[in-house]
Amino acid sequence: MKKFMRVLIVVFVLGVAGAVSLGMVDFAGEEVRAVEEFPEEAIQDIEVEATSMDVEVQSSDSDQIAVTFEGTTRGNDEPYYRVDREGETLKIEQIPRNQFSFFPFFAGDDANLRIAIPERMFDHFALETTSGDMTISKVQAGEAHINSTSGSIELKESTIEDRLSLETTSGDVYGSSNTIQNASYQTTSGSISDQSPQGETFDYRTTSGDLEVKRSQVARNTNIQTNSGDVSFLHSSSPESLAVEFSSNSGEAVVDAEGMVYETKTEHSFLGKTGENDVRQLNVRTQSGDFHLEKE
User: Fold this and answer.
1) Would the CA dihedral through 287, 289, 295, 296 be positive or negative?
2) How many CA atoms does the CB half-sphere of 128 hold within 13 Å?
3) This prediction's pTM
4) SS3 of the chain
5) Partners of residue 111 on adjacent β-strands
């Protein structure tokens, strides 16, 4: 019986070694680059769905929508993505690969998808990935929905006239110089960094990641919620009127705000105000994270 088990173990080890070897050969693959262009006239909605690819979306001065695929592949003839048009909606979708591997990190393509869209306002923009990272630059849309399972998300110099919903499970979120009327950022284990945002209402939620917001003034309504992450809010000029409410189980607050008068204040919570009219609201809730409101 022991001899039989030893034979099984040897066979398994050889099989695994073969799988790793094949996976490495497969991983080497070959370089591929493909570009397609589509007329953008009458397109109002853009939807992108990817699994393992990194996705980059940016505006261009062209009147075409250009889709560029590039990366290292296994060299077969299967298509990597498909583009469909349904009325005013253009859908770009990664096609899953038919493959098997004992070690998933040796299987699949090392590829990315770049999408260039005309520099104009679209009604709706949606982007979803499973494990790929996203970079969105200078996109204009009435509404935008951006979702990732484990990838990081970077959104910069974009304009969302109505509402943005951005969510990732384990990736980080980076925002820079965006103009958004109503924004919602959410991550489970990643951090959030939002630099120089403009807009009226901002909701930030993290579970274990830290959060940093840096802007000239506090927005009209800002709501922040974390469990164990720290919150840092930096502003370059103090508004004439501001209401700040902080509540935590064990976190502490450090506040630098001119003329702040505290209506209530305890070790782990406070309600403070400056001015009286046209009050801007900043609400912060943490479980164990600290809160810093500071002037640059």
Assistant:
1) negative
2) 8
3) 0.84
4) CHHHHHHHHHHHHHHHHHHHHHHHHHHHCEEEEEEEEEECCCCCEEEEEECCCEEEEEEECCCEEEEEEEEEECCCCCCCEEEEEECCEEEEEECCCCCCCCCHHHCCCEEEEEEEEECCCEEEEEEEECCCCEEEECCEEEEEEEEECCCCEEEECCEEEEEEEEEECCCCEEEECCEEEEEEEEECCCCEEEECCECCEEEEEECCCCEEEEECCCCCEEEEEECCCCEEEEECCCCCCEEEEEEECCCCEEECCCCCEEEEECCCEEEEEECCCCCEEEEEEECCCCEEEEEC
5) 71
C-beta atoms surrounding 123 within 10 Å? 15
Task: Provide the residue ranges of all domains of the chain, joining segments of one domain with +.
Answer: 1-172, 200-296
pLDDT of the chain along its 296 residues, tens only?
544 344 333 333 334 333 333 333 344 567 888 899 988 888 999 999 999 899 999 999 999 999 999 887 655 556 788 999 999 999 999 987 664 433 333 334 578 999 999 999 999 999 999 999 999 999 999 999 999 999 999 999 999 999 999 999 999 999 999 999 999 999 999 999 999 999 999 999 999 999 999 999 899 999 999 999 999 999 988 777 899 999 999 999 999 888 899 999 999 999 999 988 778 999 999 999 999 999 87
